[in-house]
Amino acid sequence: MENSTHERLLIIDFGSQVTQLIARRLRELNVYCEIHPYQNVTEAFLEEFAPKAVILSGGPDSVTREGSPRAPQALFDMGIPVLGICYGQQTMMTQLGGKVVRGEGTSEFGRAYVKPEGKLALLDGWFLTEREQVWMSHGDHVSEIAPGFAVYGTSPNAPFAITADVARNFYAVQFHPEVHHTPNGLKLYENFIRIAGFSGDWTMGAYREQAIAAIKEQVGDAHVICALSGGVDSSVAAALLHEAIGDQLTCVFVDHGLLRLNEAEEVVGMFRDNMNLKVIHADESELFLGELEGVNDPETKRKIIGRLFIDVFQKYANGIEGAAFLAQGTLYPDVIESVSFSGGPSVTIKSHHNVGGLPEKMGLKLVEPLRELFKDEVRALGVELGLPKSFIGRHPFPGPGLAIRCPGEITREKLEILRKADAVYIDQIRRHGLYDEIWQAFVAILPVRTVGVMGDGRTYDFACALRAVTSVDGMTADYYPFSHEFLGETATRIINEVPGINRVTYDITSKPPGTIEWE
Fold first, then answer.
1. What does R_g of the chain's alpha carbons equal in angstroms?
2. Nearest to 200 by CA among 190, 211, 208, 213
3. Please, are residues 114 and 161 in contact by the beta-carbon 8 Å criterion?
4. Nearest by Cα to 108 from 184, 182, 15, 19
5. Sign (positive/negative) of CA torsion 439, 300, 366, 364?
6. Most CB atoms closer than 10 Å: which of 30, 248, 297, 342?
7. In the prediction, which pLDDT does 20 show?
8. Residues acting as catalytic residues
9. Below-50 pLDDT ranges, the chain
10. Which parts of 117-178 are beta strand (E)?
C-alpha cells in the first residue's frame, strides 16, 4: 500500500499459478497493481487500499466445496469494475446468486475457441475472426449466471465463457487472458482498464521521483550500506539510492573469486569511477577459494559461500560509521513468493541472493527500493537512471557465481579455463546479435577429461557444456535453438582459444525437468 499516489488496481489471488502474469500485463499497460491473497483482503483492507478496480484471479479450489475461498462480499457494493477470471468468475457467480456445478464431461484444459454472443465494451477489438483462441483450465463450470448478467461468449464446453453485468461493470471470463496461449488476451485487459478509467500513470519516470522521496523520508540523515553484487537488481538499487542520498551510501562489493572474466574491474569501475559512488572492493578470493578447496557437493559449496559472504560483508560493514540501514535489491516476485498463500509461515525466497540474517544481527533496518517492481521494470528504471543499456541488460548471474558452473571440485585452474571459455561464448552470441534474445547463457566446465587430437599430438583435457535458454521469468525455460553453424563455429573458437578444453557440447535440456544452472 506504499503507492498511494498512483491509481491502483487490486488483484485478489485465489492461488492460480499464473496470477503474476496478470500483474505483469497490467504493469505493461502502465497500471499500478498489487497481488494480495484472498484471506488478507478484508473489508478494512479494501477501504484502506481504495482500488479503482479489482481482478479476481484463477485458483485450484472448487467453489462447490464448503469453506472454499471467496471474495469479500463488500467488494460488490463498492461501485467499481470487477473482472473475474476462471475461479474468479465462478466465485462471482456463486456470491451474486448464480450457480456452479462440478465438472462432469464439461471440463476444459488447454486450447479452446470462444465465439461472440453480442457486443460488449470488454471485447472491443478482441474478436478478430468469428472465433478467438483462449486457454482454458477448469473442471467446474457455471450452470446458471447471476441475476443481471448476460452471456457474451461461448465455447463448446463453457456456455458462459464470457458474461457481464454491464450496469454494474462486472465482467467474468472462464479462460485465462494473461497467458501466452490466449494470443489477444492483452486486449481484454486494455479494455477493462479503459472501462475502469485508468489514466496509465504508472511509469518509471514517475516511480523514480516517488522512490527517491520515499528513500529520503525513510533514511533521513543516516548512512546506508548496500551489498553490490554487480547484478542488475543490486546495481539499479545502488544507483537509485545514490541519486536519493548521495554520500550517505556506501556499497560493499564482495569479490569471492568466482566472477566472470574482468567482472570485478567492470563493476567497480562503473560505480566508483563513472558514477562517483563510494565502493569498497572487498577482494576475499583467497579466503573463499581456500575454504572451497576439495569440496564437491553443490549444496555444501552454496552454504560455504553464503556463510563467508555474510562474514566478509559484516567485517567491512562494521567499519562504516553511522550505518543504520542495509539496502537490498528485493523485487516484487520475491515479495509475492514470500507470502504464504495458505496463511502459514512465510517462505524464505532466494536466501543466497540476499544477505539473510544480517539486518537483525547487525541491528540494521532494511531499505528495499525495488520491492514493488518486476524485473523488466527494474531494467526500465535502470535506463531512466542513466545506467548503460549493455549493463542493465546483462543476463542473470547467480550469487554463488562460477562455483555452480564448475561441477565437482573447484580449482583455480578450472576457474581460469571456465572464465576464458565463457568469455568466448558470450562474445560469439554478441557477434551474432543474439544476446538480447536469450534469457541466460553460460559455459559449464565438466568434471571429466576426454581424449583429443590437436595437430599431431594427443590431448587429455576438459570437456565443457554450452547452455543458453529463453524464459520470461526463469521459472520455466527452453533451450535456445542455435544453428549448427553457430555451434560449430563457437566450438572451434573455444578449442582453439582456450587451453585446457578439447571437447564442446550443447545442453538441450528444458526447465523442467532440468534446472537452468548445472548445480
1. 26
2. 190
3. yes
4. 182
5. negative
6. 248
7. 84
8. 86, 176, 178
9. 1, 3, 340-353
10. 132-138, 141-144, 150-155, 158-165, 170-173
